[in-house]
Specification:
Keywords: Membrane, Transmembrane, Transmembrane helix. It comes from Streptomyces flavalbus. It holds the Pfam family Oxidored_molyb. The chain is an alpha+beta fold. The protein has three domains: about 210 residues, no CATH class; about 170 residues, Sulfite Oxidase, Chain A, domain 2; about 110 residues, Immunoglobulin-like (Sandwich), CATH 2.60.40. It is built from eleven helices and 18 strands. The protein has a five-stranded mixed β-sheet. Strands 3, 4, 7, 8 and 9 form a five-stranded antiparallel β-sheet that branches. A four-stranded antiparallel β-sheet has the order 11-12-16-15, with no helix packed on it. The longest helix is centred in the first third of the chain and has 40 residues. It is globular, with a radius of gyration of 29 Å. It binds the ligand Nc1nc2c(c(=O)[nH]1)N[C@H]1C(S)=C(S)[C@@H](COP(=O)(O)O)O[C@H]1N2 and molybdenum atom. Ligand MTE binds next to loops.
Length: about 525
């Protein structure tokens, strides 16, 4: 063999490796496309990426989850899915290369990954049965076949067949066969991908149509108009009512549940429920509706963070519904102290029965800011309880209410070390100036929001550097269940300054300086902002 031959052969080997790696990637895409097509038919949440992602979210330690929310915010789920896809791509390339050496190893690997996906899908809390394994399994089988087919063309022809001319060495693989196979596999992948998308769109349409048909009845008890003076006319302050499209979203759903309101049912049952009930969406709309402004806060919100919003909710008073079912609060001898709400995606949230029945406007909400709930925010029905963090009250896509006890049942986040009971902590935030802003010397308006839902805000104070606490002007209060804007005209002098804020709630408690992380029951501490005055 000449040096030239050797070089050619090495080049061939390199080419074969590259093609094997690409075959792995292509077969991986085929597997995913077929899996997603089957998932569109079985259940969108049963797809391998969503199922494995969901399982990963459930197993992520609270600290890591906290970090992910802090670093990526609402994009944390996108980052997770991109991570899974990257890992799959690496595995696919590896399996492609492995298959060059060991005839069946690559395909076996693909099947093994399929088994992992199937196991994840069937063990999800919202799994509806063994059919959830089908997307991963059928995807893996197709992927394994594709890999086997592609790699079959990259192998040297059977020994003994003499090359027609010895110099230079003939390609040791079936180029035409490979190209044909690759084209066929790519076409199948694209076809499956497009069909899956179309089918998914179709399936979402019943839900979308049912939402489009919702006509919210006029509430028997409308919200009071927002008092004049509750909304300061100052640039940079969060609007008093958060527009729906700007309202924060926090949930574990990788695929937003699309529930058809006409098929939706809510079950109310459990300890001390003397008259269990199953309600339809129309049953709810026929009941007396109330409309209230309520500020919702996420327990994961850091001091100064964005996971708080104020909306106008329309819904059924939960206390009335529970009374109809015979539920009594513990203070009146009721045996259940925990209300567990369960969503269509298997999330569980537990609220104190006493709080829900103490006269506050705990709602089964059907509307947000005058519209049916958006899918992202829980269509068709969600809970909202003034004064409790979202994770212990605000169940979206709710389908089941069970009366039980805190001793008997731990909900999703409680199992992950978050507190059983979590009333919202008194907090305040500086919206303007922004951190590291460079305002001009003179009067600078410092302004923001403060909240202590269901207690109400009585005072907000601002401190400049190490100076005394000074009273801010409070905007008018809408209700004690909503946040309150405040402002402070600051005579800013040149140089660097630190502005801090603290609130006092109506119980007289001053917002604590003690810094606490969000886990287990909400962040505490004072929000401060550093600015340089020019
Ligand atoms: N089904 C379901 N409901 C849920 C959650 C969830 O993950 N799944 N997250 C809760 C949390 S932690 C919060 S803070 C609120 C957020 O509601 P939003 O997304 O409408 O702002 O929803 C709550 N309801
Ligand atoms: Mo939350």
């Amino acid at each position: 063999m000449t040096d030239d031959d050797r070089t050619t052969r090495t080049a061939h080997r390199g080419l074969r490796r590259t093609l094997a790696a690409l075959s792995g990637l292509l077969a991986g895409c085929t597997a995913l496309a077929v899996a997603e097509l089957v998932a569109a038919w079985v259940r969108p949440q049963a797809g391998p990426v969503v199922a494995v992602g969901g399982a990963a979210i459930d197993r992520t330690p609270a600290a890591v989850k906290d970090w992910a929310i802090r670093s990526f915010g609402t994009a944390d789920k996108l980052v997770l899915q991109l991570g899974i896809l990257t890992a799959l791509a690496v595995l696919a390339v590896t399996l492609g290369l492995l298959n060059l050496r060991h005839r069946y190893a690559g395909a076996a690997g693909v099947l093994l990954l399929g088994a992992v996906g199937a196991a994840a899908a069937t063990s999800r809390p919202d799994s509806t049965g063994p059919a959830d394994a089908l997307p991963s399994l059928l995807g893996a089988v197709t992927g394994a076949l594709a890999l086997h087919l592609l790699l079959g063309h990259l192998r040297p022809p059977a020994a003994g067949a003499p090359a027609p001319d010895a110099l230079p060495p003939a390609p040791t693989w079936d180029r035409r066969g490979f190209v044909t196979a690759a084209t066929a596999v790519a076409a199948t992948t694209a076809g499956a991908g497009l069909a899956g998308r179309a089918l998914k769109r179709d399936r979402g349409q019943d839900a979308a149509a049912s939402r489009a048909h919702v006509v919210l009845p006029a509430p028997a008890s409308p919200a009071r108009p927002v008092p004049k003076g509750a909304q300061l006319r100052l640039p940079g302050v969060s609007p008093f009512l958060t527009p729906t499209e700007d309202f924060y979203r926090v949930d574990t759903a990788l695929v937003v549940p699309k529930v058809d309101a006409t098929a939706w049912r809510l079950r109310v049952h459990g300890t001390g429920v003397t008259r269990p009930a199953t309600l339809t969406f129309d049953d709810l709309l026929r009941r007396e509706l109330i409309e209230r402004d309520i500020t919702l806060t996420c327990v994961s919100n850091e001091v100064g963070g964005p996971y708080v919003g104020n909306a106008r909710w329309i819904g059924v008073r939960l206390a009335d519904l529970l009374a109809d079912c015979g539920v009594r609060p513990p203070s009146r001898g009721g045996p259940a102290d925990q209300l567990v709400a369960r969503s269509v995606d298997g999330m569980t949230l537990g609220s104190p029965v006493e709080d829900v029945l103490d006269g506050r406007d705990a709602l089964l909400a059907v509307g947000m800011n005058g519209q049916p709930l958006p899918f992202d925010h829980g269509f068709p029905v969600r809970m909202v309880v003034p004064g409790l963090y979202g994770y212990v009250s605000a169940c979206k896509w709710i389908e089941d209410i069970e009366l039980t006890t805190f001793a008997d049942y731990d909900t999703y986040w409680v199992k992950r070390d978050w507190a059983r009971e979590a009333p919202v902590k008194t907090q305040s935030r500086i919206d303007t100036p922004k951190p590291f802003a460079r305002p001009r010397a003179g009067t600078v308006m410092v302004a923001g929001v403060a909240w202590a839902q269901h207690r109400g805000i009585d005072e907000v104070e601002v401190r400049v550097d190490d100076g005394p606490w000074q009273r801010a002007r409070l905007a008018a209060e809408d209700s004690r269940d909503t946040w309150r804007q405040w402002s402070f005209p600051w005579r800013a002098t040149k140089g660097g300054h630190t502005l801090a804020v603290r609130a006092t709630d109506r119980s007289g408690a001053v917002q604590t300086e003690r810094r606490a992380r969000p886990i287990p029951d909400g962040a505490s501490g004072w929000h401060s902002v550093v600015v340089t005055v020019d």
